[in-house]
Amino acid sequence: MKELRTDFLGVKLSSPLVLPAGVLDISFSSYKLVSGYGAGLITTKSLTKEARKGHEGPVVTEVEGGMLNCMGLCNPGIFEGLEEIKRFREISNVPVNLSIFATDAEGFTELAKEANSSKADFLELNLSCPNVSDEFGVPLAASEKTVAEIISSVKSVCRLPVIAKLSPNVTSFTRVALAAADAGADALCMINTLGPGIDIDIEAGRPVLFNVSGGLSGPCIKPIALRLVYESRKAGITIPIIGMGGITSGEDAVQMLMAGADLVGVGTAVYYRGPEVFEKINDEILSFLERKDYHFISDIKRII
Ligand SMILES: Cc1cc2nc3c(=O)[nH]c(=O)nc-3n(C[C@H](O)[C@H](O)[C@H](O)COP(=O)(O)O)c2cc1C
């Protein structure tokens, strides 16, 4: 018997595959669709206190080996987001990871208090926002001190396990990862989109995205995602890691587990292989377990 079931922070998941933040909308029907296809954990779009319209389109463009997006964190606000989670959890046992987004520790803490009375199972902090109080606008996730401050403050009020989602666009990624773990994060999620980058329409003579630049995701970022997970483990991170960035096939997912992840996010691949991608990758992982005569996901974790 081959077994995809895995334990994450004391919660049983039917599969190690995770829907990452923001790749689909925040509706009950999207959660139902991907959980029906075998996602083991659903992450919401990052929710802010008030609704946000996001950027003007085009907000997404396909580039070689991936995708650029500048959604601008459009979302209906935390209260509507929590309602959708409640509707979903009434009909499904698949756990939900609530992603929140703010510009400082106070904002994150205020949102974390709302999460306490929600039906979410985990709270994920999207730390990729530029630090508004920094004169160069470096992301919150670039500063060990800021990351530690946000996590300690959220942990002091939140009853849910807290997952820190890190940005790859920093100079000392593993130091930030260690700071997040030391500050009490229960797990880490890596990586958010890379860049940003731009694409240019040469006929129109202008950038393809209305906002000019956008975050890069998809297969072209996989080698970097694998390295950052691997280096985090080498640097001494022992808490669980949700690894993501370009995972599109069972082989990619196995690579991410071998690099040191406990769970594997499948984001941009939903655009390439449809929502059925979760079922397909689950089957591909099972075939790998069969071929190698392994039994559990834990048999392939951190193998390198
Ligand atoms: C259209 C789109 C929207 C995204 N929105 C969010 C978001 O709201 N919050 C967040 O933390 N990450 C967001 N991400 C980043 C993904 O969650 C993920 O970290 C990244 O895309 C890498 O994984 P992938 O290559 O499998 O897509 C978004 C990515 C895409 C493509």
Describe this structure in words.
The protein is an alpha/beta fold. It has one domain: Alpha-Beta Barrel (TIM Barrel). It is built from nine helices and 16 strands. It has an eight-stranded parallel β-barrel with strand order 3-4-7-8-9-10-15-16, surrounded by eight helices. It has a four-stranded antiparallel beta sheet with strand order 5-6-14-11, with no helix packed on it. The radius of gyration is 18 Å and the shape is globular. It starts with 5 loop residues before the first strand and ends in a 12-residue tail after the last helix. The model has no long low-confidence stretch (mean pLDDT 95). The structure holds flavin mononucleotide.
**What is the CATH first-level class name?**
Alpha Beta
- Average pLDDT, rounded to a whole number, is 95
Q: Tell me about the largest β-sheet.
A: 8 strands, parallel, barrel
- According to CATH, the homologous superfamily is Aldolase class I
- The N- and C-terminal alpha carbons lie at a distance of 25 Å
Stretches with pLDDT under 50, minimum 5 residues: none
- The outline comes out as globular
Task: Give Rg in angstroms.
Answer: 18 Å
Q: Which distinct ligands sit in these coordinates? A: flavin mononucleotide
Run of helices and strands: EEEHEEEHEHEHEHEEEEEHEHEHH
Examine the secondary-structure arrangement and name the CATH architecture: Alpha-Beta Barrel
Helix content: 25-40%
Sheet/helix structural class:
alpha/beta
- Total domain modules: 1
Q: What fraction of the residues are assigned to beta strands by DSSP?
A: 15-25%
